[in-house]
Amino acid sequence: MKLFSKAAATGLALKSIYFSIREAVAYRGVRDANKDITINHGDMRHGTPGVNAALQLSVVWSCVRLIAETIATLPLITYERKVVDGREIRLVAREHPLYYLLHDSPNADMTAVEFWEAVVSQICLWGNAYCLKSYGAAGRIVALDPLNPALMTVRRSADGALSYLYADARGQKQFAEGDIWHIKGFGTDGLMGISPITAGWRSMSGATATENASASTFTNNMRTAGVVSVKEFLNIDQRKQMKEKVMGAVFGDSRTGQLQLLEGGAEFTQLSMHPADAQMLETRAFSVEDLCRWFGMPPSMIGHGTAVSNWGTGREQINLNLIQYVLRAYMVRIEQGIKKSLMTPVERARFFSEYSVEGLLRGDSVTRFQVYSTAIQNSIKTPNECRALENDPPLEGGDVLVIQSNLVPLTMLGKITSTAQTAKSAMLSWLGIKEKDDDHSA
């Protein structure tokens, strides 16, 4: 009977997981990669704000991509708080179900990097990100699936509870507050985040108009529209020969060059404004800086600026500014959202998730080992703890904290005062010679 009950429970758990994943995939939707991105998604050329239309601007694309990819590639670790010898410590909670979901693979279709890229980019563009939580038979979260923010409507009922109405081509479905993990961007009411695309559509429309003007100017090899005049009036054959033979030979295809023929002594007149008169380069440069403000992004981080701002110590300060004033806001929102929406009240007292910003040093070996050296010399970390971060095996004796003063064990600090005596004792011990008392030594 017990065996049957255990088998039934296992079957129920598998069935629950299967249907949860199937439902999540069904409501995630299918996108046509060949579809015109301006259809039903706004068109900056006509003053209509839209996320996919805004992504046609290289500045918006670069800002969103940099923020999303940087945060997505940082390790997100789940920790457990424990009290050892009266002191609170934290340990990596590898056995907690959320560790695998958040660090490795949140659902059956995505790696952690792909999932967090989608979530963070949704916060950057729509101001909100929604993830469907799928539960197993034991009530544990077994999958997190991002939903399309453009298809979600948030409502608050009379009793104060939130409900989420998700509508797509297959119809509408209403989710309870416990079924959706809602991550909000910057907002003013605490209920919904504000989309930078909607709030900044005037700036983005202006930038798009500048891009269109630039493309139009450089079309046809920068041939401006104009006219060519002759003193006499031409008949039909002469006019045809003038356009095809004379104008075509000198200017190429007259239709491409947008040239017109005027007769009777009319003079040549340029019909379009010269790029220098329109200050096109200055306008495009201003558009980059203007759009960067909507994402809090230093312009030099996306390749805009001078050599002074893009290299040397100036670049280091810009990188620090990016972490402190741009990325940190997104990371804290996610960390607090995990604790509030993905953990039970009991778990919140013991567990928490946190980004490891040190992951940004993965490509900087010099800085990384300088940090290790400082941590070891000041008794912050043991040599083996630093070796573990480099995926190196532990060494014997490497679990003892040392201090910069001769790198002696922390427990011996104050007992050993002479470097020469320490070296002498170690040498005699290694040779197997018993050290004589100072009073009887020669």
Question: How would you describe this structure in keywords?
Answer:
442 residues, alpha+beta, three-stranded antiparallel beta sheet, 16 helices, 11 strands, 45% helix, 15% strand, disordered N terminus
Can you describe this structure in just a few lines?
The chain has 442 residues and is an alpha+beta fold. The chain has helices at 2-28, 51-54, 58-72, 97-103, 112-126, 196-199, 201-218, 236-251, 254-257, 280-295, 307-310, 312-341, 345-348, 365-377, 383-389, 419-431; strands spanning 76-84, 87-92, 128-135, 141-147, 152-156, 162-168, 171-176, 180-184, 226-229, 259-262, 351-355. Among the domains are: 46-217 and 286-305 and 317-363, no CATH class; 375-416, no CATH class.
Helix proportion of residues, in percent?
Answer: 40-55%
Shape: flat
Strand content: 5-15%
Overall structural class, as computed from helix and strand content, comes to alpha+beta
Largest β sheet strand count, sense and barrel closure: 3 strands, antiparallel
Distance between the termini: 86 Å
Could you list the spans in which at least 5 consecutive residues all have pLDDT below 50?
Answer: 1-22, 24-41
Total helical elements: 16
SSE pattern: HHHEEHHEEEEEEHHEHHEHHHHEHHH
Total strand segments: 11
Q: Compute the gyration radius: what is it? A: 33 Å
Mean pLDDT across every amino acid position:
74
How are the strands of the biggest sheet laid out side by side?
2-1-11
Pfam families: Phage_portal
Protein name: Phage portal protein
Organism: Massilia violaceinigra
